[in-house]
Amino acid sequence: MFADMWMERACLNMWSMSHKVNMCVGPLLQGMMFAEMWMERVATSLSLSPAQVRALNLYHEGDTTHFGQVMENCHVRACWDKAMANADYSARAGGLA
User: Fold this and answer.
1) Which of 74, 32, 77 minimizes the C-alpha distance to 57?
2) What is the phi-psi region of residue 58: left when phi exceeds 0, alpha when psi lies from -120 to 50, beta otherwise?
3) CA angle, corner 86, sides to 93 and 39, nearest 5?
4) Global confidence as pTM
5) What is the rounded end-to-end Cα distance, in angstroms, of the chain?
6) Which residues in the chain come in under a pLDDT of 50?
7) What is the pLDDT of residue 97?
8) Among candidates 59, 57, 63, which has minimal Cα distance to 36?
9) Could you give the 3-state DSSP secondary structure of residue 75?
């Protein structure tokens, strides 16, 4: 009996939590998809690759965000460069052309 009650509560809570997460994350993901499509269109109109446009939009050390936050210990560029190198992006992208 105790196991049935626990399972009933766990399932109820897990459904409730996933419902709340979907409510919060859904609009965020839609916004991110919109931004990615926008990057693709900008890249196409400028005859650049989407990766070049994304790299141009990365924050650098000392940049200020639109919230007024100064970027300190900003490792975004190093992370981007390492990810691109590890993925061998230029060779893979060249194979698609």
Assistant:
1) 77
2) beta
3) 45
4) 0.62
5) 63
6) 2, 5-7
7) 52
8) 57
9) coil
